[in-house]
Amino acid sequence: MRASGAAFAKLLWLCSSAVEGPGRRGDGHPAPEPGWHRSLKGPLAGLGGGGTGAALGCARRVCSFSFSVKVSLGGRAMQRAAALVRRGCCPRTPGPWGRSQSSAAAEASAVLKVRPERSRRERILTLESMNPQVKAVEYAVRGPIVLKAGEIELELQRGIKKPFTEVIRANIGDAQAMGQQPITFLRQVMALCTYPNLLDSPSFPEDAKKRARRILQACGGNSLGSYSASQGVNCIREDVAAYITRRDGGVPADPDNIYLTTGASDGISTILKILVSGGGKSRTGVMIPIPQYPLYSAVISELDAIQVNYYLDEDNCWALNVNELRRAVREAKDHCDPKVLCIINPGNPTGQVQSRKCIEDVIHFAWEEKLFLLADEVYQDNVYSPDCRFHSFKKVLYEMGPEYSSNVELASFHSTSKGYMGECGYRGGYMEVINLHPEIKGQLVKLLSVRLCPPVSGQAAMDIVVNPPVPGEESFEQFHREKESVLGNLAKKAKLTEDLFNQVPGIHCNPLQGAMYAFPRIFIPSKAVEAAQVWGAGPGRTGFTWNCWVGGCFLPRGAKVLALGAWNFVDRSARWCLQQKDGALGSPALQSAVVRGRGEVSPGRVVLSRAL
Length: 612
Hints:
By secondary structure, the protein is an alpha/beta fold. The protein is built from 21 helices and 16 strands.
């Protein structure tokens, strides 16, 4: 076939253009420029038959179809398609091959579709075939309400009118996203570690340079961009151990028991992975507080473990009652093997700080029931009540004597994300695991090795948290001033939040002793519940409807649930984060919505804005 592929392709395009009048195609696109046929005269002569004239007639007369070219054509297929174009698309061409446009077009189109598009086969991964444990995972901190909040924010940006002008994101403790300024010393050291050329700059204090050099010298190639050991950078683990010893008044900490993690969440899920085993009634049961931080229920679902709920005492400022622990274990033994007891202190979302006596009782209970203790202590710097003090489980355990300190297995966790630092994005954290069997320690390191290492930048941030400036160093005064300012502001907001909630009819809030959240009791009349059910929300999801009404984004009742038997029109749907912009106090964006007995929603007396 003497016609070039380019010329033939152009012919097909021209045939499908359906030229209708001067300068336009039938589909609205520009028609070929005048004289286009001259460029094809030579190549088209090789098509035979009517040659160029037939082709030109074809291109000008076809107006009822377009060619669907799915694949490259060659050889006999191209020849046959060309013949069909010559004889079928040009009814004025004399000869025995004249026919209607429609039949010739159909045949030509069928030939050009040499390889018809394959029908899509059944997907390998579907909701029915996927891992059922993953499907069972729920994490309300980033769940449907947060997605809805994002949609509403986009609507506000497009100018859609709402009863509010902004969405207040009170669902997660992301300090710097809410306006908290980073600690200068921490960012200085991180800048030096990230760009070591700054070590020669006079703009940085010497104590920051000293820490940066120490961290970099412990990294491969003197760079944060290198992998570390799976357990973490050695010198940072040493600094963590030294910090724990100082914090606990001299109780020793071994760097070999320190594991640097991708935030505290990574450490919690890793420990639970090696603890969960068995099947049926021997499946591992994990005891968690209710209300709880939904990480725990999510990981338990993912691992197909058994969630064992124990309920905090709201009437006693969310205290942990050992009798409630005994009830939970006794009932759980009918269907699982309770092996793990999780404690969050200070509490998330309840804001309580457990007393030393309570911690001693919990440790004795764990020793008695042979339970592995998990102590989530990421809010250890966030204690606001003058009557409360943070006691680490590690310290109390050792001070209870060798019968406990040598036998109770304990993993405790800390993070860069909370406290006064608020460095959530660095994903820095550590866990200290004590009394672990040597063979299990090897298995833990193996499991950590699968993901190579936690982010080295996060490890460096954790080092600055546990090794801050000390009196006499150049940066100490500024560091201490910034730290106390952050913690002081949080303490003021905790008190203000508590007072404002308790002034609103239908809301009751316990004293906020620590952490970063308020967890009020909201009394909801029956008509409001009925209205929510009409919307598809209903009991347990009423907070979703309230979010849309008042412009606040907070967690649903299911995430921080407290069961009191019957529904009783009490919803614990709102976990309010204290880390908000100071200047937003008094903003109308989040006026307290008080649901009246008539089932109506009206503004409350108190503005609950970004201070919450």
